[in-house]
Write a structure and sequence with these properties.
With 566 residues, this protein is α/β, with parallel strands linked by helices. The chain contains 17 helices and 14 strands. The longest helix is centred in the first third of the chain and has 20 residues. The protein is globular and about 85 Å long.
Length: 566
């Protein structure tokens, strides 16, 4: 690092806005949300999503409540073109949902974009060109007037192509890319020219998106830029003013919130902040920040764990355990003083009162998280290293959420027995809690058979010397097992590992299960030389653990459970 960085890096020159209004405003309603997960987030992945994973994420976005979803850059790749066609031809665009497609301001790319969306019910065509001095001088090598004309020509072409296709409802969007590094006067000049070409009006509004393509300064400077544009743009009543903050300086959330105070109507971003470089603004955090201030965001995030798993599966990107609201550890206190304050807060908190539990900004249950891992112990409390000992001595790598669950089991043991827990004792606790459970359901064997396109399974269960034989069919052994039991449990998470040492079994399987009337999610664990048998044992382990709080999980095996009861 240089002793004098000012010789290489210059501070950003702020906007002159001495009468700024945004510092005195508060957020009282949600913005229009636009997800760029399938375009901006997709192009930022090590391995871009294929159609099945992209479709799964699209369906998740629709379920959460997004009504504007940027689904691709169809002129840039055949994969994106094909996915847009897939959504249209599969009739996968529900009423009220607008798909958005991105294109550069180049005639042949705009033409290709319209070919991709032919027959769609509702489309936002999003066109952009960079406007900052470095792009004008270094990349385009054009005068400002040439860059302005590039935007206007693209806007005119889009208007003409849309007019020729009246069967589709159209919205137009323009972004002066690198807005955050563009002179405000020139950004206004280009935007005014585009809105004139599109004849923007309250009856036919257009979207003007002002991206912080790269964060250039502190969030208050971005807010000043947005307020300046908000106050100086022509046809403002015919404009939906949008922002697209990136997170280069780590202040994307703050920039988005201040921009909304400064006059923005709409926010573009990704779930959990995915995107190129340091990512786009995190829409989940932004939405739940509103929620904690008493403003419903208009998105359904009440099952945030399922959204998280979908995003991790589709993108192949893990969400950090300290990520706001959704990380595995964000509702966990290791410190004794924090634990004491949280315990007292829970004791004083009534169901209908204003939320006032220390250290917790939101009730975890509002977003589908449980209280099970709120208070835990770690090595500082003398009971840490559970996962390390299990892997080191027994070759068992516990999934992260199972580490949370099992640490509570160990804590309960040490609270009663006192002292430290050795690796041998730890393995004994693990076996009793997960691997040796035989009540209410005792697994005695199974056989698989083909049933046409489906998998058939015969399951033998025992209880108190009695035996039941159940038969089920499904897409695979686990589906057939649950159908044989007629059990309402859902498999939330599945992992399997080979065992290198510590047991004669060749494989270990972890199943995270839940049921509609259960209070939490629990793990079941199975070990066997055969991975299918290990998986079946894991499901039955989890059902046995769930049965105490939700007897309905026993399904058809309830009679065996009753016989097993003392």
């Amino acid at each position: 690092m240089r002793n004098d960085p000012s010789a290489k890096y210059q501070p950003y020159r702020p906007v002159r806005l001495t009468d700024r209004q945004w510092p005195d405003r508060t957020l009282t309603h949600p913005p229009v949300w636009m997800s760029t997960d399938l375009r901006d987030g997709n192009q930022a992945l090590f391995e871009p999503m294929d159609v099945p994973r992209k479709r799964a994420l699209y369906d998740c976005l629709v379920e959460v409540g997004f009504e504007e979803i940027e689904v691709g850059f169809p002129s840039a790749s055949q994969a994106d073109f094909d996915f847009v066609r897939h959504l249209i031809e599969d009739d996968a665009i529900p009423p009220g949902v607008w798909i958005e497609v991105l294109t550069q301001a180049r005639p042949e790319l705009i033409q290709r974009t319209f070919e991709a969306v032919a027959g769609a019910p509702r489309v936002i065509v999003h066109v952009y060109n960079a406007t900052s001095p470095v792009f004008r001088e270094t990349v385009f090598r054009q005068e400002a007037s040439g860059v302005r004309q590039m935007a206007v020509s693209a806007a005119e072409q889009i208007r003409e192509l849309a007019a020729a296709r009246p069967e589709t409802a159209w919205r137009f969007q323009y972004s002066p890319e690198t807005f955050s590094a563009t002179e405000p006067d020139f950004a206004r000049e280009v935007v005014d020219a585009v809105t004139e070409a599109w004849d923007a009006s309250p009856q036919a509004p257009v979207i003007i998106n002002l991206p912080a393509t790269v964060e250039m300064s502190t969030p208050n400077v971005y807010a000043d830029q947005i307020e300046w544009m908000h106050r100086h743009l022509q046809r403002r009543d015919g404009i939906v003013l949008s922002v697209h903050p990136h997170n280069d300086r780590g202040t994307g959330i703050a920039a988005a919130e201040l921009a909304l105070m400064a006059g923005a109507d709409r926010v573009e971003g990704c779930l959990f902040g995915n995107g190129e470089r340091t990512g786009n603004v995190d829409l989940v955090t932004l939405a739940l920040n509103l929620y904690t201030q008493g403003v419903h965001p208009g998105l359904d995030l009440s099952r945030i764990n399922e959204v998280l798993r979908t995003v991790e599966h589709c993108t192949g990107m893990a969400v950090h355990p300290r990520h706001p609201y959704v990380g595995d550890l964000v509702f966990t206190a290791f410190s004794g003083s924090h634990q004491d304050a949280i315990r007292k807060g829970f004791a004083a908190q009534s169901e209908d009162a204003v939320w006032q539990v220390p250290y917790l900004t939101i009730d975890p249950r509002d977003i589908g998280r449980s209280y099970e891992s709120v208070i835990r112990v770690n090595s500082q409390s003398g009971k840490g290293g559970i996962a390390y000992l299990m892997e080191r001595d027994y070759g068992v790598t516990l999934p992260r959420r199972l580490q949370v669950e099992f640490s509570q089991v160990v804590q309960s043991h040490t609270d009663q027995a006192g002292g430290e827990v050795s690796a041998d004792q730890l393995w004994g606790i693990f076996q009793r809690e997960y691997l040796s459970l035989k009540t209410p359901l005792d697994y005695q064997g199974h056989s698989l058979f083909d049933a046409g396109e489906r998998q058939g399974l015969k399951l033998r269960l025992g209880s108190e010397g009695e035996q039941q034989l159940l038969t089920g069919f499904g897409n695979g052994p686990i589906d057939a097992l649950l159908n044989a039991l007629n059990s309402p449990v859902r498999v939330q998470h599945y992992e399997e590992h080979s065992l290198s040492h510590g047991s004669d079994a060749g494989a270990i399987c972890f199943m995270e299960l839940t049921a509609a009337d259960a209070d939490t999610e629990v793990f079941g664990v199975g070990m066997d030389a055969n991975i299918v048998t290990a998986s079946i044992r894991a499901v039955l382990s989890g059902i046995n653990r769930l049965a105490s709080q939700s007897p309905a999980v026993l399904g058809n095996a309830a009679s065996a459970a009753r016989k097993a009861s003392p």
